[in-house]
Write a structure and sequence with these properties.
The chain has 18 helices and 20 strands. It is 25% helix and 20% strand. The chain has 540 residues and is α/β, with parallel strands linked by helices.
Amino acid sequence: MHEAQKAYHYGFDEHKALQSLTTVPASSLKLGHRIGSIEVGKDADIVIWERHPLRLGARPKHVIIDGEELDFQKPWGKSVTELEQVMKAESVKEAATDDERHYLPPFSQKTMRLEDHGLNNPESFSAACASGVDSYVLRNIGEIYMNASHALRASELGQALYLVVKQGEIACIGVDCDRDHVEWPNSSPIFEMGGAVVIPGIVSMGVPLGLSEIQAEETTQDGYAKNDVSDDGLYKKVVRAVDGLKFNGLHLQKAYKAGVTTSVSQPQVGSDLLAGVSVAFRTGVENTILDVVDALVKEEAALNFVISHSGAMTVSKQIATIRDLLVSNIKKDPLHNIFARAARGLIPVVVQVDDKDEIASILLIKQAISKEHSHDVKFVILGGAESHLVAEHLSRLDVPVVLMPARCFPTTWQSRFCLAGPPLTPSTVLDVLLKHKVRVGLGSTDVDNGDARNLIWEAGWNLAHNPHLTPQDAVGLVTWNLAEIFGLIDSESLDGPGVLNKGGKADFVAYNSNPFEFGARVLLVSGGGHDGPTCFPQQI
């Protein structure tokens, strides 16, 4: 169904998108006389959706096969009574919004126009969005999501919203940015945004963007890191992702054109424990790392480990090795030893792990080092399919989670307890983590299916069923949350990826309508190391 939703987003007619999953495959299989449509005399195979199936986050409410309804209230390991109470509570909430849920909003026809305000403003998009353009004005913005504590809406303020950019920095944002209050740049584009929605540039994490192009072709990849964890001199030669970056590849172009302006990429690893040191960089760089002054956001974003179940080392040995690498180096010189920096909390330590007990073991390491050495290791859980089962401890120890994939599937033994969400379970892993106030970001698995460009959809997926999740919270899942987790935001200026502030870099993406609905189009991408704004980017 999600593939049909994406087809609808990119131009399929509503009915043709649904037919691609029903009548067309049924006819292709020569089974159209029995299945594929709801007609008298055909099999009673029917799905009743809680909202229009082509809307983001739509989930089945009732599934009927051969006239028998599937019972979703009997998932593994869950109390039927408890689930009945939850589902009843949810049905009351849904009944109040039936009209809205069953409605498929038409695609917004709003777009971006150029205006001439007598300041020698460019009149063509080819000139307005050319290389070298670093000053411009966005006028008539509908909503601006700046950071976790500031979101501006023109409808609530009763005033027009602006964003004035001068020499690549935000000179004014919000209200009182018109020409009566702020001097607009001369000979620069004035974009009339038609009520657009502006959010900070999206931050990707999890997928090694810039290190791999074609998964099945080794020559297009940086290769797999081989860090010998038994080598006493490992700290001198640990693999660093920054050394293998390749800019302007197809995956990076797709991500950038969808508003992903920053990526945190870790070295690829096979079945080894230590991946190496990840890098945070800007995705819009068109040539090499030498051509853009700020191409790198952070050379050392995190120290990355991957708990593997296919290698020679047992899981318990892997956990012990992580502990030893941190503890044995804790008194070494942090200026020259990456493990010393990690042990002292000077750099995040990312552990890719799904299993609840393995996550608990990582938390025990954090507790032990804090108690015995008085240092706070900044662990980050990547993956986290079963992290909801240790949510209280993650919150207590302030260990953030980057869910990868954003919506978990119990495809492995280590993720068998993950929460898929309604109708199978009342909540998702994300819902539980947010309820316990765990810091959460969403990761991408672009190497598998190119979904880095779809991160904004992953962020908005739970809005369909979680009344406690706001659009501002959803934006944060792929912007400022990740930037804060990896220390990408300057503590003094509060500038950095994932946030919008006056005086900060103009790093943002503008949509013509609500980005959490299919059909929303990217009007403009700014920043990401790209020379000039990118207008009306087309996916490739």
